[in-house]
Amino acid sequence: MPKFHIYFTVLTVLAGLFAAGHVSAQGFKLMRYDEDYSTWKDSSATLYRHMKFLPLNASKRSYVSFGGEARMEYVSFDNEDWGRMGIGKNNFLLQRYDIHSDVHVGSRLRFFGQLRTALQGGRKNGSRPIDQDELNVQNLFAEVTAISSGSSQLKFRLGRQELDYGSGRLISVREGPNARLYFTGAKAMFSSKSFTVDAFAMQADTVNPGVFDNKGSGEINLWGTYGKLIIQRGGNLDFYYLGTRRDDAVFEEGRAKELRHTLGSRLWKSGGGLIYNLEAAYQFGSFGEGTIAAWTASAELGYSFEHSKMKPTINLRNDYISGDRHQGDGKLGTFNPIYPKGGYFGFSPQIGPVNLIDIHPYATLALNSKLTVQGDVVFNWRYSLQDGVYRPSGSFNLAGGSSAKRYIGTAYLASAIYGFSKFLNMNVGVQYFKTGDFVEDLIPNAQNGLFINSRVVFKF
Fold it and tell me: Deepest in the core among 10, 153, 161, 430, taking most CB within 10 A?
């Protein structure tokens, strides 16, 4: 813990320096390339504003913007994988740093580049792919605005870039883990006042832990379209098609080449009052010599009392995610979450969105303007008794065909976020996983899992 306290002190000093300059930072975006500082061109001069909007010509139509992030996370994990690895207590430190520049050449052309470092220290069983990537080019793309008329725009983007769509069930940048995802390829983006749609073709790299040593796949393995329609007084409607290819896919059914197509839709509304998020997707394609028929359906309902003291919200989620029903029948029923959000079922879930039924109530309270707390309970069952459990990434973890037990276990979560300023916040979380009959049936002397983390994030 001493190292974590040192890092926290340094970040607090940096945040204080920005605050001392009486600057006002906009809300930072999940995707830093979505931030727009063009409206700052006539703002009063401060060091921070020069960093966010540095004109390159007299008209100020061309400019460059700089930004970055430092994130430190201390993790304590007891009985990861329910004690199967025999490690017991596992304490380690995660660090992430990045810096980016956004160059606008007039109103039609921009270049965005970002370097990122992700480091891990102290984990007894070594780094996972989500922990360590010493230095990589996270984003490096050129973007051209081909059409700009009123509220309608058509843009083309080419190069390395992050992707994040919808609620992150299928395509997520993976913000929770230490190393975020990225792809290399081309994307076309159309947007109007009430409608947006993207079309893309991408290849995913193999992430290695060293410096500039990630390897491209050399082939397109993710492609598709994702659209959103804003319904007046009726929320939002997302619709998508995603295609994926993996030459060495592993499920309990076996290992083979996978070509999968996903069709899905999402109806959702956030903000005050009634909250809902309804999503369903169907998958088809080929797995080896066989076929694929898989699906998922999710319903989340809640209510935000935005005008009440502490602005409480209450929510209830229920997910059904298919697994393989009959091993060896030539039809794979296991759902593939593709590139899912790491913390979709809790901030450090021990099971992923495959072959799963869950019920997930949770609630939040804003104790004051800086502190928000949340409590969750997640009940987890296997959808199919002929399929096992999978990791949060969707990769195969534990075979289940030999067990007739369905209940995996219960996760209890509590978390708090404290915002010191617009630049600095801290997140603390505790998760306890109580094993169910299925885990106890397959793992001798299975242990309940305890996960504790403290994370400090500084952005500028």
Answer: 161
Q: pLDDT tens digits for 414-423?
A: 999 999 999 9
Q: What angle do CA 400, 127, 256 make, to 5 degrees?
A: 40
3-class DSSP state of 155:
strand
Pairing state of beta strands 396-398 and 389-390? Answer: antiparallel
Place of tokens 């390159």: 56
pLDDT tens-place string over residues 87-125: 889 999 999 999 999 999 999 999 999 999 999 999 999
Q: Give CA–CA dist 8/31, Å, rounded.
A: 24
Is the full-model pTM beyond 0.70? Answer: yes
CA–CA distance from 339 to each of 27, 156, 181, 352 (Å)? Answer: 26, 23, 9, 11
One-letter identity of residue 67 = G
Q: Give whole-number Cα distances, 25 to 19, 52, 56, 337, 449, in Å.
A: 10, 9, 22, 35, 39
Assign 22 a pLDDT band (cuts: 50, 70, 90). very low
Alpha-carbon gap, residue 228 to 240, rounded angstroms: 9
Q: φ, ψ for residue 15 (rounded to 5)?
A: -60, -35
- Domains parsed from the chain with CATH numbers: 2-459 (2.40.160.100)
Residue type, position 323, single letter: G
Strand 290-304 with 331-332, pairing: parallel
Residue with tokens 């080929």: 286
Q: Interior CA angle at 165 toward 387 and 205, to 5°? A: 70
